[in-house]
Design goal:
Length: 259
C-alpha cells in the first residue's frame, strides 16, 4: 500500500494503536546518486538535503524519530538506556519502547529492517538485521527487551514484519556468512544457502528465510513481509550492494496516543 510519500505500510494485523511505514527512495530533494529521499546522514550526501528529507518524513510522524548510530551489532536501545544516555544518536542496531508517540527508526539499503508489535499494542520494537546482526542475535535481543517492558507478554503475542532487503536471488555471499549461521541447523541452511554453480565457496543467501526460522524458533508465528528485493528495484529502493554510493530509506513505527 502506498500514498503520496510513497510509503509502504506493513502487511500485518495489529492493534489500531500501532502505526508504521517504510519510506522508499522517492519523494525527497537529494541529488543523484542519492536521489531523492535519502534519510542517511553518513552516506556522503549533502547534510542540508538529508535534514530537509527528514523534515518531509517528520510531517507524517507524531515526533522526531529516535535515529540510531547503526554498526551492524546487536545492542538494543531501550527507554532506560535512553534516559541514561539521552536521546542523541548512539550505537545500537535495534530499539524498543512502550511510550506512546515515541518513534523508532531503522535505516537500511539492503540490510533487513524488522518491525515488531505486541498483540495488545502496548510495546513495539525495530531492528536492523543484516547478516551480521541477524546471526549475532539482534532479533532475539529485541524480543527480549520487548518482553522486559511488558510483563506477561509471550512471544506468541508478538507480530513481526520483514521490511525491504536484498532478496535471495541477489545476495551472493561467501563461506564466512554460511558459517555464521551454523547454529540454525543443516535443514534450514540447505534451503537458505544455495551453492552457486561453478563458483566454489559462494552461495545465494536468503535473509528472509533465515529470519523467519529464527523467529519461529522463538515462538513467533505471525510473520509477514519479506516480498521485496532492494537490489532488483532501483526505482524504488536504495541498494548498497548494487550502487555502492547510495542513500538510505527508513522503517518507522510508533504507538499512537489514545484519544
Amino acid at each position: 500500500m502506498t500514498n503520496a510519500l510513497n510509503k509502504i505500510e506493513p502487511s500485518w494485523t495489529v492493534s489500531q494503536q500501532i502505526q508504521a511505514f517504510c519510506t522508499t527512495r522517492q519523494g525527497g530533494i537529494s541529488k543523484p546518486p542519492f536521489n531523492s529521499l535519502n534519510l542517511g546522514l553518513h552516506a556522503g550526501d549533502d547534510v542540508v538535503d538529508v535534514l530537509q528529507n527528514r523534515v518531509i518524513v517528520r510531517s507524517e510522524l507524531p515526533a522526531e524519530p529516535l535515529w540510531l548510530k547503526q554498526i551492524h551489532g546487536v545492542t538494543v536501545s531501550t527507554p532506560a538506556s535512553r534516559n541514561t544516555f539521552g536521546n542523541g544518536s548512539f550505537e545500537a542496531d535495534a530499539a524498543v519502547t512502550n511510550i506512546p508517540n515515541e518513534v523508532l527508526a531503522i535505516l537500511a539499503a539492503d540490510c533487513m529492517p524488522v518491525l515488531f508489535a505486541s498483540k495488545a499494542g502496548d510495546v513495539i520494537g525495530a531492528a536492523h538485521a543484516g547478516w551480521r546482526g541477524l546471526s549475532g542475535g539482534v532479533l532475539e535481543n529485541t524480543i527480549n527487551e520487548m518482553m522486559a517492558l511488558s510483563p506477561g507478554l509471550t512471544t506468541s503475542d508478538i507480530r513481526a514484519w520483514l521490511g525491504p532487503a536484498i532478496g535471495p536471488s541477489a545476495f551472493e555471499v561467501g563461506e564466512d556468512v554460511l558459517q555464521a549461521f551454523t547454529q540454525q541447523g543443516k535443514d534450514i541452511l540447505s534451503k537458505a544457502f544455495i551453492p552457486i554453480i561453478g563458483t566454489p565457496g559462494k552461495y545465494l543467501a536468503d535473509l528472509y528465510l533465515l529470519a523467519r526460522d529464527r523467529l519461529r524458533v522463538l515462538g513467533i508465528e505471525q510473520i509477514t513481509g519479506g516480498e521485496f528485493c532492494t537490489v532488483s528495484s532501483p526505482e524504488r529502493f536504495f541498494s548498497y550492494r548494487r550502487d555502492k554510493v547510495t542513500g538510505r530509506f527508513a522503517s518507522l513505527i510508533w504507538i499512537a496516543e489514545s484519544a
